[in-house]
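Support request, priority: normal
Reporter: lab tech (M.K.)
Component: structure prediction queue

Hi team, I submitted a job for Geranylgeranylglyceryl phosphate synthase from Psychroflexus salarius yesterday, and the status page still shows it as pending. I've pasted the exact input below so you can check whether something in the sequence is tripping the parser. The sequence length should be 233 residues. Please let me know if I need to resubmit or if it's stuck on your end.
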Amino acid sequence: MKTHTQQLLKQLQLVGEQLAILIDPDKFKLHQTEAMVKALPSKTDYLFVGGSTATGQQTEACIKSLKQQTDLPIILFPGHYQQVCQAADAILFLSLLSGNNPDYLVHHQVASVPHLRASKLEILPTAYLLIDGGRPSSVERVSQTSAIAQTEVELIVNTALAAEFMGKQLIYLEAGSGALYPVSTEVISAVHKACRLPIIVGGGLKTQHQIEQAYQAGASLVVVGTAFEQQFI
Ligand SMILES: CC(C)=CCC/C(C)=C/CC/C(C)=C/CC/C(C)=C/COP(=O)(O)OP(=O)(O)O
Ligand SMILES: O=P(O)(O)OC[C@@H](O)CO
Ligand SMILES: [Mg+2]
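Reply from support: The job had stalled in the queue. We restarted it manually and it finished. Here are the results:
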């Protein structure tokens, strides 16, 4: 097995207040790649590529097209092991710890290993916590798990700390793509106070003010998908 550099993990641990734009291969149109890359906010640090229902082929075509237009690091954000693609730079090695579906706790991870053993992708061990964003999300539907209520702060903190004790390197607090409201600053700051890992926050972030609030509460990286995507539909 090749050694994986820890370049992006170090950047996530050290830099803070970073921005990722999420591209969902499901909705991605190849002919719009150039315009889309030009429209990226100047502060963009990473592109996340993934979706709950995207196929491997869609994911690969999307990443290859983006790679022709930008040098930004491309981080896979997989909804399924078949989305593993060697053309990316890194992978959020997600485990859906807010739910009790073994497929999303461990089976996708095991199934991805044959693709990852031979690859140079940097692996980012990530605890993925789905928090209620006010409407049913695709992740809930696909994984057949329920989101944790925003009021269950202690459960969220305990789940994040369990992730830290398990050796995860990143915590992703997810309100679901297109959420009516994002993960609250109360939840983010409670996790930040209790847990040493960098926090990624995504789902339902639409305004600069919401993004600033997430950083102030302790998010190291904010993910925006729908608000960017809507320019291209
Ligand atoms: C580690 C490997 C290989 C796979 C991980 C598999 C796991 C645990 C996935 C977590 C659950 C899941 C389905 C995550 C998908 C996250 C994602 C990329 C969401 C993007 O948004 P969509 O859910 O596609 O939203 P739309 O409905 O708006 O398209
Ligand atoms: O599409 P939005 O609501 O920006 O969510 C982004 C991301 O966190 C979803 O997985
Ligand atoms: Mg999708």
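The longest helix spans residues 102-117. Residues 24, 26, 50-52, 77-79, 81, 84, 93-96, 104, 108-109, 112, 128, 138-139, 142-143, 177-178 surround geranylgeranyl diphosphate (ligand 1) (CB under 6 Å). Let us know if anything else looks off. Ticket resolved.
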